[in-house]
Write a structure and sequence with these properties.
By secondary structure, the chain is an all-beta fold. The chain has one domain: AOC barrel-like. It has no helices and ten strands.
Length: 179
């Protein structure tokens, strides 16, 4: 699953307001193995919003067995909790914003052929204009399979969504060029 931006004196003013950004991209099973027997997903996303244009790379994994959920239930739905991961936003000016996953999950709805996936990140700083950033952001995505593997299982997915939250210590909106 991809997001953050810009140069100059305008980037020195702190902004504690809400974060509101849109994303789109793709996801696949990752080759990363941080926990034996736990498959990771890798999201490659791009977007724009509060801090300008960005790319976002997210790695996440969860419990491989279905879990009970009050927000994802029904005969055609399956819920998988997400327990570990991280994300890095790369903005047009080279600034980075990073976060560690603190929660989330995937609600797979087989009847409609898509999933609602949520990733909550604790922002832990970054580089450039995000060196002192902190806060929490939530990545909410609709994930739709677009290709299956040789066994007929979904293997490649299209992603659309949004990032919301607050990042005190993040700076300015779109930078001096208005990107």
């Amino acid at each position: 699953m991809t997001l953050m931006l810009s140069f100059g004196v305008a980037a020195t003013n702190a902004q504690a307001g809400p974060v509101n950004m849109t994303v789109s991209g793709s996801t696949v099973a990752s080759t990363v193995t941080l926990q034996p027997g736990v498959p990771f997903s890798e999201y490659l996303l791009s977007g724009s919003g509060t801090f300008g244009q960005f790319d976002l790379r997210v790695l996440s994994a969860g419990v491989p067995a279905p879990q009970k959920s009050t927000t994802c239930s029904g005969p055609t739905k399956l819920y998988l909790a997400v327990t570990v991961g991280a994300g890095v936003f790369h903005f047009a000016d080279g600034s980075l914003l990073s976060g560690t996953l603190t929660g989330g999950g995937d609600c797979i709805d087989f009847a409609v052929g898509q999933a609602l996936c949520v990733r909550v990140f604790q922002v832990s700083g970054g580089t450039g204009r995000f060196a002192k950033a902190a806060g929490t952001v939530t990545l909410t995505m609709t994930v739709i399979p677009i290709m299956v593997d040789g066994s007929g299982n979904p293997a490649f997915f299209a992603v659309t969504g949004e990032v919301t939250g607050a990042v005190p210590g993040g700076v300015g909106e779109k930078g001096p060029e208005g990107e």
